[in-house]
Design brief:
The complex is a heterodimer of chains A (about 290) and B (about 150). Chain A has 3 domains: about 5-55; about 65-175, no CATH class; about 180-210 and about 215-290, no CATH class. In chain A, a hairpin with a 4-residue loop joins strand 1 (about 25-35) and strand 2 (about 40-45). In chain A, helix 2 (about 85-95) packs antiparallel against helix 4. Chain A is α+β, with helices and mostly antiparallel strands and about 290 residues long. In chain A, strands 6, 7, 8, 9 and 12 form a 5-stranded antiparallel beta sheet that branches. In chain A, strands 1-2-3 form a 3-stranded antiparallel beta sheet. A two-stranded antiparallel sheet of chain A has the order 4-5. Chain A has helices spanning about 5-15, 85-95, 105-110, 120-135, 150-155, 170-175, 195-210, and strands at about 25-35, 40-45, 50-55, 65-70, 135-140, 180-190, 225-235, 250, 255-260, 265, 275-280, 285-290. Chain B has one domain (about 10-140). In chain B, about 75% of the residues lie in helices and about 0% in strands. With about 150 residues, chain B is mainly α. Classes of the chains: A alpha+beta (about 290), B mainly alpha (about 150).
Amino acid sequence: MRDGGLERRWAVWRSNVVLPPWLSGVLKTESSYVDRRCIRHSWIIEDGIKAEYFHWSRLCKGPDMSEVVAKGEIRRHQLQRIESPVFAKREIQKALNEPSNIRGLPELIRECGISLEDCQLDYHRRRIGEKINRGDWFFIADRPIKPLTSVELEKYYGFRFSAPPCRQLSMARANMCLPHGPGRWVTRDIQTDIATNALSFAANWLTSRGDEGRVFLAEGKDYANTFRTMIQEWQPLTDGERHLKDKSVHREFGELRHIRQQFVEADDHWQLSGSSWHWPPVTADIEYELKEN
Amino acid sequence: MSRLELPAGRVYIGWGIFDAIYVARYMLVSVSAGRVPYVDDFNSAMELLAVHGALPKVLATVVWGLEISIVLSCCFFFLRWRTARWLAYVQVPLRLVLFVPSISVLFMGPDLKERYGMALLLSLLVISEGLKVWTLWVSGRGTHSLG
């Protein structure tokens, strides 16, 4: 049976409530998500033997599966399936008539603070379109009109996209995941929250007006309560770090974590005064995550 | 009806004195705090800006632009160069945004916000800049010699 065949029959059985001939002996069936894209089908046949079938599914969306994913999840998908935001925006705005038809779209709508009922309003459509334009969310399609290139992803959205290293595995498996392994967190990007920081700078500026004899922005307190988000990526250990292999936790390579930091005067352990201006939670550019035991 | 005329030379000296007070006070307080005026602040700002985003860099450019322009306008006013007038006009929006009144003695001392309150601070700032623009414009339209 070629890949994807089973779930089509399953879909026919589900929609028409007519058991296909090869399932005539089934007494009980169930299907459940192992994760977002993997579905486990299981059934017990008359003789008590339980059978299970795992499928990295096209089931929910039929033969042409499209999906909207957040930026942090994009590495799970093949580069050639990521639609250019120009076309993605149009497709997604069209799909707002029936958001549940595209997996992930309800989540995107909710992230914008919009209810599913209101998402067709022009103002909300524009907000959702902006999310796509900015590259906060991406549209994954089987046959994108213009797939993004790795150069565009790096240039416009600030992260590098390498081809899935599990290319030698089956297509279903390659669609499913990137390999896990021991590794380290490496800083990929630092983003600042311009709107919030502008308010903080304005407040600090007013406060600093009483401080004569110095130019604004020359002291840490002028930057007080500004925010930034450090984005780190889980990368494999280098040759020199192999000794940490057994101690390190295992994660999917390419997984991103976002650490929000606030610039404040806080206690430290390296200055005479015992406090300094820094970004807690303090995070090094390269961090190792070791198992607890 | 006779037109109000102001001697440009005196106007220039007047505004030059306010700029000089601003610069001198900054330098005195900076030196008394054990710093080298401008140099230490610049070095310190560079270190901090390196770990912050683009916004403070833009702000720092504006702030330093105004600081340098005040030193320049002080010199130009005392030298009675006509350029001083145009430089003063350019400074007005920066002074309004950055709360640096041309009548520099207005905002001296600590706890400005508590002392004046926000409304009075803004009013003084606007009056100060309005007065400067008006005096420079009136003195500039006549044929008064700067000498």
